[in-house]
Amino acid sequence: MGFSLAAAFYILALLLTAVLIFFVIYQIIAFDELKTDYKNPIDQCHSLNPLVLPEYFIHSGFTLLFLCVGEFLTVLLNAPLIAYHIHRYMNRPVMSGPGLYDPTTIMNADELSRGQKEGWIKLAFYIISFFYYLYSMIYTLVSAS
Could you count the other beta carbons within 10 Å of the beta carbon of residue 130? Predict the structure, then answer.
């Protein structure tokens, strides 16, 4: 059996997607805590905002690696979420630091609902991606022999 660069990138994508799943689960829990008034919005925004850019860079980074090795189907599957991330970050509220969540507006019912929906959709996407990367890694390893 041969070990190709694409297989190595799929292994890396598996590990990084597991990290992204934990980020999104944390986001879902944080919005649930805000919805039930368990934590105040300022503390939640200070804990959520530092996770935004790492999530975007991790997802964009391994998609760029797949582009370099010619895994175009994988790139096409990841492109819509990357486009959404870019759109979401370009239209974020005016803030002094990086991040998406503003403590003054995060308690609006629309923002809470949007944050929870976004979290659940991203969680589904990352879980599906995880199993796709697992299948693709195995397929790449088996077909390389």
Answer: 18
pLDDT over threshold 80, residue 145: no
Contact at 8 Å (CB) between 102 and 34?
no
Domain ranges for the chain, please list them.
5-143
Q: Has residue 1 got a pLDDT over 60?
A: no
- Annotate the chain with DSSP letters as a single string: ----HHHHHHHHHHHHHHHHHHHHHHHHHHHHHHHTTSS-HHHHHHHHHHHHHHHHHHHHHHHHHHHHHT-HHHHHHHHHHHHHHHHHHHTPPP-SSSSS--TTTTTSHHHHHHHHHHHHHHHHHHHHHHHHHHHHHHHHHHHT-
* For range 55-62, the mean pLDDT: 95
pLDDT tens, residue by residue, 14-23: 999 999 999 9
Residue 97, burial from CB neighbour count under 10 angstroms (0-12, 13-18, 19+):
exposed
- List, for residues 24-40, the tens digit of each pLDDT value: 999 999 999 888 878 88
70 Rama class: left (phi>0) / alpha (psi -120 to 50) / beta: left
